[in-house]
């Protein structure tokens, strides 16, 4: 699978580009965005199929995109979209801003949000979700554990396999 991302100047230009070509399947992510600050087009293809995905974002940051086999993970605003050439797009929304992806050794993908963490298997199916009660300020994976630091509370250690919080929290927040 090949993935390409191109920034576009306006939402109008994105819609115009999508209306001109009928040779590919088109999707728009973020269509419910009220105040668009950035626009882009994501092209996902293999030898026989191509889909184009427009992204309308309420933030000035570019979406983060990682590929895991035949699945692409796209994170922006408060959502992660799982894109496959054989299945429709799966959308997962969080109550907070998307930060980053972490690819694990077992090919699972962690999606880090401001106060949430989602774990997806390599096919884009959700394994577990962790909801924090404070803003995540730092995160790292080590020895199968996700270490989370928070703005105003104690750090937490989460198993990346189960999503269960360890009783051995580290340090002060």
Structure characterization notes:
Helix content is 6%, strand content 51%. The protein is built from one helix and 15 strands. The protein is globular, with a radius of gyration of 17 Å. The strands form four sheets. It has a four-stranded mixed sheet, covered by helices on one side. A four-stranded antiparallel sheet has the order 5-6-7-8, with no helix packed on it. The longest helix is centred in the N-terminal third of the chain and has 10 residues, at 11-20.
Topology:
Layout: E1 2-8, H1 11-20, E2 25-29, E3 38-45, E4 50-57, E5 64-68, E6 71-76, E7 79-84, E8 90-93, E9 98-103, E10 109-113, E11 116-120, E12 126-131, E13 136-142, E14 145-150, E15 156-159
Parallel strand pairs: 2-4
Antiparallel strand pairs: 1-3, 3-4, 5-6, 6-7, 7-8, 9-10, 10-11, 11-12, 13-14, 14-15
Written as H for each helix and E for each strand, in order along the chain, the element string is EHEEEEEEEEEEEEEE
- Which assembly state applies to the chains in this document? single chain
State the helix count: 1
How many structural domains are formed by the residues? 1
Estimate the strand proportion: over 45%
Percentage of residues assigned to helices: under 10%
What is the strand tally?
15
Q: Radius of gyration, Cα only, in angstroms? A: 17 Å
Unreliable spans = 169-173
Give the spatial strand order of the biggest sheet: 1-3-4-2
Give me the secondary-structure category. mainly beta
Q: Give the overall form.
A: globular
Averaged pLDDT? 88
């Amino acid at each position: 699978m090949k993935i390409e991302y191109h920034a576009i100047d306006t939402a109008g230009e994105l819609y115009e580009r999508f209306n001109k070509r009928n040779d590919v399947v088109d999707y728009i992510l973020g269509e419910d965005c009220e105040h668009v600050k950035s626009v882009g087009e994501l092209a996902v293809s293999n030898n026989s199929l191509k889909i184009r995905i427009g992204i309308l974002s309420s933030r000035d940051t570019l979406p983060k995109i990682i590929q895991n086999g035949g699945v692409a993970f796209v994170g922006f605003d408060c959502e992660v979209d799982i894109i496959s050439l054989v299945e429709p797009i799966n959308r997962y929304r969080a109550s907070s801003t998307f930060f980053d992806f972490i690819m694990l050794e077992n090919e699972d993908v962690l999606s880090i949000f401001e106060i949430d963490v989602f774990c997806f298997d390599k096919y884009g199916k959700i394994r577990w979700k962790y909801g924090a009660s404070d803003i995540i300020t730092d995160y790292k994976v080590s020895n199968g554990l996700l270490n989370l630091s928070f703005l105003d509370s104690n750090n937490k250690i989460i198993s990346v396999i189960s999503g269960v919080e360890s009783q051995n929290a580290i340090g002060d927040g």
